[in-house]
């Protein structure tokens, strides 16, 4: 099942995506997808189906309690960056306002020309937990989405923490929808491809991850309670712009796409701030 958050037809809510239509599911008691993950997905439509070109896609979880991103989590990416493989996950946070939904313009900031692309697999939590074991970790996964975890590289390097370079307003994207976990046989065997203006920039399977999804959930949940709707963004594969010679950065007029096998394709135009 594919579940999207949307704005359209005079309403804001979440919908089941079927046959190029969005079938509204929100109710007075369950107004958004984050709430639905904690209380159960409604099975009956709450309104008429809408063509996808008549809605605005929002990030699947527009108001996540936590968006936790994993740095340097692909072996080949560590190699291209000239960095040693980490012994523990490197984690930074993204704010809700730093990403937009599918099809919505991503904003290239005026403050820097070093606006880099990063295609990633996002894991959405469906069941709360603390101190979750690796053996039980996948029981807490609601589903998956594409994520454009774009980075402003010079700001990322201003300090020992990456936060500044990762949270420019509307600099990233998340979507187009949440594909439920039952649709994905093995999230560690998915082809991830990112394209800039149609040219393939990154192409790698999620098998290249250094820390698996169960390892990440177990590690994070030792220090934070994971809640329904929390997002773990699992890192980017090799091929990013700053490692290329010459470097390749995004600019207004570009289009960046992230396609993940079985999950979906996230596409966003780039505009100037």
Automatic annotation (TrEMBL):
Top-rank taxon, per record: Bacteria
Chain ranges of the Fumarylacetoacetase-like C-terminal domain: 66-270
Protein's UniProt keywords contain RNA-binding: no
Rv2993c-like N-terminal domain boundaries: 1-60
EC class name: lyase
Alphabetical keyword list: Lyase, Metal-binding
UniProt keyword annotation of Metal-binding present: yes
Pfam families xrefs: FAA_hydrolase, Rv2993c-like_N
EC number: 4.3.2.3
Gene Ontology biological process terms in this record: carboxylic acid metabolic process
GO molecular function: isomerase activity; metal ion binding; ureidoglycolate lyase activity
Family membership: Belongs to the FAH family.
Name the UniProt record assigns to this protein: Ureidoglycolate lyase
Annotated source species: Oceanibacterium hippocampi
Lineage of origin: Bacteria, Pseudomonadati, Pseudomonadota, Alphaproteobacteria, Sneathiellales
